[in-house]
């Protein structure tokens, strides 16, 4: 209701909503049970921590691919971070955070935001096999900073130990050992964003602009009521 439909917590005090909710609560066998805008936050925090713990357990000592993207909507800037990893030969995709950005989107600031999220999930730098992002200069620079140990004085990977418990983890451990001491993290530019930029550049060609202009004129004409009726009769 809150995360999917965008309703505020105050809806729990709405008289119409309470008419639907109160009979359900009164029918529960548990006495003293209550739901309001205050205690529901505690349930959300507990559920959030449970999800974080589950993801942390799943990705312990695993190689992951990190995906980072930023967006600005309605004067609010957000950064989204998710990961991909293999578990039991199945590709897993998890969202780690969608966090509001309160400062200028410099590469150093973005790196700090990403590092805070990685620390929350106990992800060491050596686990990051790749970082996928769009072609924004600040995000590409952020990837370079993460990849360069000299630019990260807070890094502490000495205690990171690959402890393979099955064939998949043993393979991941062998990959790490084979690549070291070369930098493990690879910078990957989002193919969809790159393709979009190519298409935008292609559409700027004068000959294509003329064709697109004609197409728009035809479509606008067809959308009129007269031609819409003609097309419906032909169908």
Automatic annotation (TrEMBL):
<dbReference type="InterPro" id="IPR012337">
    <property type="entry name" value="RNaseH-like_sf"/>
</dbReference>
<protein>
    <recommendedName>
        <fullName>Zinc finger BED domain-containing protein RICESLEEPER 1-like</fullName>
    </recommendedName>
</protein>
<dbReference type="GO" id="GO:0005634">
    <property type="term" value="C:nucleus"/>
</dbReference>
<dbReference type="InterPro" id="IPR052035">
    <property type="entry name" value="ZnF_BED_domain_contain"/>
</dbReference>
<keyword id="KW-0863">Zinc-finger</keyword>
<dbReference type="GO" id="GO:0008270">
    <property type="term" value="F:zinc ion binding"/>
</dbReference>
<keyword id="KW-0479">Metal-binding</keyword>
<keyword id="KW-0539">Nucleus</keyword>
<keyword id="KW-0862">Zinc</keyword>
